[in-house]
Amino acid sequence: MNLNFDFGSVKKSPALDENILYDVLIIGTGPAGLNAALYAKRKGLSVGMFTSKMGGQVVDTSIVENYLGIQQVTGEQLVEQFVAHVNALKIPILKDAEVLKIKKDEDGLFKIQASGFKIYRSKTVIMTTGSKPRKLGVKGEDTYLGRGVAYCAICDGPLFEDRNVIVAGGGNSAIEAAIDLSKVAKHVQVVHRSQLRADQIIVDKLKNIQNIDILLETKIVEVKGDQLVNGIIAEDKSGKTIEIPTDGVFVEIGYLPNNALAKGLVELNDHGEVKVNLRAETSLPGLFAAGDVTDVPYKQIVISAGDGAKAALSANDYINKMK
Amino acid sequence: MKLLNDDLRNQLKEVFQDMKDDVTIAVFTKSGTCNTCTETISFMEEIETLSDKIHLKKLDIENDAELAKAYDVQMVPSIVLLNKDEAYVGIKFNGIPAGHEINSFIPGILEVSGSGEQLPEGFLKQLETVKKPVNIKVFVTLSCPHCPGAVQKAHKLALENEFINAEMIEAQTFDEISNKFNVSSVPKIVINDQYEFVGNQPLEVFVEEIQKTQA
């Protein structure tokens, strides 16, 4: 039995104040948002943050081995260190906050509407709302959501003890999920429509595990079940249909940007990602973006953190020019 | 066996300094067949030492059947948080709140002590219409980082409205009830055993589902 106490989230932080005009309000507290907060605060700006989950998707990652300077750490511990660093600067954070709307008024100032009819004001906004798991988009997926179809291996893995599961996907998240699940499940079948694109070092790890099998160039076309999931139907390269019995389907096929706030406000690319330039500027002056929600390629913790810093410095320049 | 190390003890002491009123932790266990009861009691004993405002009551679901009934305790181990008047405020944890669930348990103590933040006014207005009993079950696993958020929201709603009670249920310990509600993703939220959704959804979704029970 262990304890995963998250001091940074539980400890009360200073309250976000509706009467203050902030220099920067940051939406999201993943690596991009937290690093933006750190850099903005160190520039002497007044900073506030909105969070629905401290650490963003990093907390769903069991092990992180590619953050420079830290050879191996759990996603959760890494977040803890990020949050402790930011908390030391006493930045007000509105927790469990749904931001409903961002608006730029004629006076050039931003108004952010949060749930419960609260309005916060700022000179600049940094949007770091991250991304959410992409769905397979096949028949049965929504029907069996929470009844065998799952998107968080570390959360739901324990419920599949000694059962058979399928992992859909071939990237790092999929292979890591398969490795995690192999510790509790009886058998893990990785099904991916093309070739594996996970890092070689992770694929090598997977190949040593007895109860994982890999099925490539196979496309899942349906999730089947009764009360709960009991199998999938897939199509191989030649178009032949196969049926694989399973108790669970873990979907790890990438991410979609959380762009609800950005729609109609700034330019998006074809994938729905917020377009940013070299300075993390969006198409709306004063609104910056960083991390997985943007069109910056390669969704990585270190890249998000770096872009968060960039956005903060860029916001600082913008504020200096306002004066 | 101690669950808390020195670092954690100090962090928790600091967090508990924000407590306003006293809180009683009522732990229900049963001798014999309960695997995690001993561990749960010893964990709660450790928590009790971290603040003068925290009091522990060890109860037996059979010997203290009347209290168990009053707090609607049906499984063990079960932890009920009581306010300064030792009154039930609709907040319960079924199963040991270890792993990630410590992040719903500790805030739960702070909330019951009266040091939590009030819900935004919009929600309070919506909750005023709730006049029939509402039970919120939040199924969790201890390795789920999103789950404490959902448990906290449910507990917060229970605190705000006397007709609402909310309980965390650790899905692996209580597999029978989890199977009954087909829990295969967590957090899974079941309201009045009838309306359900998956995930740490915004408060709006909780309130919307609760309102369905009031028709």
UniProtKB/TrEMBL annotation, chain A:
UniProtKB keywords: Flavoprotein, Oxidoreductase
Superkingdom of the organism of origin: Bacteria
InterPro entries from the UniProt entry: FAD/NAD-bd_sf, FAD/NAD-binding_dom, Ferredoxin-NADP_redctase_2
FAD/NAD(P)-binding domain mapped to chain residues: 22-302
Protein name stated in the entry: FAD-dependent oxidoreductase
Organism: Fusibacter paucivorans
TrEMBL record, chain B:
InterPro entries documented for this protein: Thioredoxin-like_fold, Thioredoxin-like_sf, Thioredoxin_domain, TON_0319-like
Thioredoxin-like fold domain residues: 134-210
Ranges of residues in domain Thioredoxin: 31-102
PANTHER family: GLUTAREDOXIN-LIKE PROTEIN, GLUTAREDOXIN-RELATED
NCBIfam families for the chain: PDO_seleno_TRX
Protein name: Thioredoxin family protein
Source organism of this protein record: Fusibacter paucivorans
